[in-house]
Amino acid sequence: METILDGRGLARTYWLGATPVKALAGVDITIRRGEFLVLQGPSGSGKTTLINLLGLLDRPDGGTLDLDGVPVATLDENARADLRRDRFGFVFQSFNLVAVLTASENVEYPMMLKGVSRDTRRLRAAELLSRVGLSEKAEVRPDLLSGGQRQRVAIARALANEPEVILADEPTANLDTQTAYDVLDLMSLINEERRVAFVLSSHDPRVVLRAQRVLTLRDGRIAESPSLR
Amino acid sequence: MSLMALALRNVARNRRRSVLTGGVVVFGFAAIALSGGFMSQSFDGLRDGTIRNGTGHLQFADPAFFSGSEDAALEHGLSGSDRAAANLKKDSEVDEVLPRIDFVGLVTNGSRSVPFLGTGLDPAPEARTMDTARLLVSGRWLLDANERGVVLGSGLARALNVKAGDTITLLATTPEGVLNAVDATVTGLADIPIKELDERYLATTLGLASDLLVSSGRVSKLVVVLREPADAAAALPRLLASLNRGGIEVAGKTWEELAVFYRQVRMLYIGIFGFMGLVLVVVVLLAAANTMMMAATERTREIGTLRALGTRPSAIRRMFIAEGLILAVLGCLGGALVSLAIRAALNHAGLTLPPPPGVSHGEPLHVNLYVTAYAAGALAMSATLVVASWFPARRASRMPIVDALAHV
Questions:
Q1: Of chain A residues 109-128, which have a CB less than 8 A from chain B?
Q2: What pairs with residue A11 in β-bridges?
Q3: Inter-chain Cβ pairs, chain A and chain B, closer than 8 A
Q4: Mind listing the pLDDT tens digit for each residue in B135-191?
Q5: Nearest 5 degrees, angle CA B116-CA B122-CA B128?
Q6: A58–B400 CB contact, under 8 Å
Q7: Which of A40, A173, B225, B372 is the most exposed place for a label (fewest CB within 10 A)?
Q8: What's the pLDDT band for A226 if we cut at 50, 70, 90?
Q9: Residue B10: its chain A contacts at CB < 8 A?
């Protein structure tokens, strides 16, 4: 499979006061087009940090990160913002929908940033909400949606600009069992339909079972060799 | 949906806080608009008082007269003032031309002598166009240009212990340096609002002043009263050109150039109201900055999400500044309505203000609709809200995304 993201020796250290905390200590990782990759490991193993680096939400202290062969770790903030908008989708543990926008407007937001016309945005948002089974909730604000519905809106939003990679940090952690299964089913289907790569961080075995490939992190390092299912 | 629409919804998100901030803007705007209207009314009153208390809109005299270096009355007097007055009266904007003779001397009741500042004038047009005749508290104004009467300031009359109907003697030095004296009847007493002037004020007819100074046909200056609305600065060069074309060499000054006191009071008012305005702006700035800072802090996680989705830092800043501007515009609109309502209430309350400095009588309170103050209020409030939004916006746009997303 074609490589989209390629990280070599990725390292990230945080500071707790004067104490350095090594969240990542030299991770090599490759993300391939259309794959369903799960990062697993205990809390504090570096899963979220790695997701943040891969999604250009944070900068590594060491190592390199290439997107389609182009180094992106040192790009300026505007260029990174444009890449996040155009190439990535994000699904967060706490859904992170914009409270003052309706479900449809939340899905439209990334398209608005990209300059997509209003009519096109409306059509595409309706299509995506339909795809995640929330057509009837298009004009509802997030506070009136259930957790599962919010996460599905977040998935629709992540798909808005037809990204190549969707990064999801603990996407089922705040959902009940059945809803978590529904959300995972949806992600799997979209992965198959649209050939969008999914990178999920989770220590939930239900998530790991869906993975095509699993990477286990421990103490900021890859603990087990990548394996394709 | 756009960033502006998002900003609008963010303003509506916490209504109570937005109403409080908008209320501060309403208060700030209304205070600026109303104090500006009051200041405008005060300036108008002071201007009218200055012009109608004797200065007129324009004054024309021998160029040396304005240098203030006259050693004796009429040393730089105008000859042929009738010709100059006729020339000036041809202008359609000129309402009246008032010849004046300025002189100083001593006035005596036979037992006591007091120095005075005298003005020889033509009583009828002076009474029509100036307020001096209205300051009379006893007796009457002068009748005609040759009457041998005087009007004294109340303070001067007290010093001489004279009243209307009494006879006094005026002593003055002629332009040739000869001491001369004439008798005159006190026709009336006037309350001059400035105490120092009240103790020296003496008005008489041009005829008596000419007799005293032995200089018939000469005046110190011509005071011009323009028709309202008057534009003295525009009229001066036009009238000077007309006089010059008529072969009359004189200099001219506008009332504003002559009224040092007016300029000083104006500067004082501007200083006081400017300081008040500055205090208001600081109060609004602090209140609005606090609100915007709270809004930014509460929405830290959401800002992190927007940035994660690809919103550039500059767009985050624009969104916060747009929120500030929306509050400013709504607050200014509310402030304008409140100002108009308070203005209408005050103007119909029948209140009378104490007279401004140098003016004899108080005016009814009438807060002007001073558009400049409304514009200044809107500008000041908008700029203040932009500044108040800028720092939280800058902070929000610079925060690392992962920190913002982890904010609880």
A1: 109-110, 112-114
A2: A25, A62
A3: 70
A4: 899 999 998 888 999 999 999 999 999 999 999 999 999 888 889 999 999 999 999
A5: 110
A6: yes
A7: B372
A8: low
A9: 100
Say what the pTM is.
0.76
Q: A112: nearest CA in chain B?
A: B2
> Of B171, B168, B172, which is closest to residue B151 (Cα–Cα)?
B168
DSSP state string for B307-365: HHTT--HHHHHHHHHHHHHHHHHHHHHHHHHHHHHHHHHHHTTT-BPPPPTT-SS--B-
| CA–centroid distance for B378 within its chain | 23
Of A82, A84, A86, which is closest to B308 when you measure between CB atoms? A84
Task: Please give, rounded to a whole number of angstroms, the shortest distance from the CA of A157 to a CA of chain B.
Answer: 9
Tell me the one-letter amino acid at B114. V
Distance of CA A12 to the CA centre of its chain: 19
**Given A86, A97, A100, which is nearest B6 (Cβ)?**
A100
What pLDDT does B357 receive?
Answer: 60
* CATH numbers and ranges of domains, chain A: 3-97+160-228 (3.40.50.300)
Contacts of A83 in chain B (CB under 8 A): 310
CA pair distance B162, B260, nearest whole angstrom: 32
Across the interface, do B309 and A86 touch by the CB < 8 Å criterion? Answer: no
CA–CA separation, B157 and B152 (whole Å): 6
- Chain B residues in contact with A98 by the CB 8 A cut-off are 6, 302, 305-306
Q: How far apart are the first and last CA of chain A?
A: 14
What DSSP line would sit under A49-94, residue for residue? HHHHHHTTSS--SEEEEEETTEE-TT--HHHHHHHHHHHEEEE-TT
Those residues with Cβ within 8 angstroms of residue B291's Cβ, 6 or more apart along the chain or in another chain? B17, B18, B20, B21, B388
Helical axes A103-114 vs A147-158, angle rounded to 10°: 20
Residue with tokens 């869906």, as numbered in its chain:
A210
Q: Does A85 touch chain B (CB under 8 A)?
A: yes
Q: Where are the alpha helices (DSSP H) in B60-181?
A: 81-89, 123-129, 154-160
Of A58, A99, A113, the CB nearest to B309: A113
Task: Tell me the ipTM for this assembly.
Answer: 0.94
Domain ranges of chain B: 3-50+262-405, 63-249
The tokens of A61 are what? Answer: 């202290």
Residue A182, both tokens: 């529904």
CB contact under 8 A, A90 and B306: no
Nearest residue, CB atoms, A100 vs list B10, B301, B405: B10
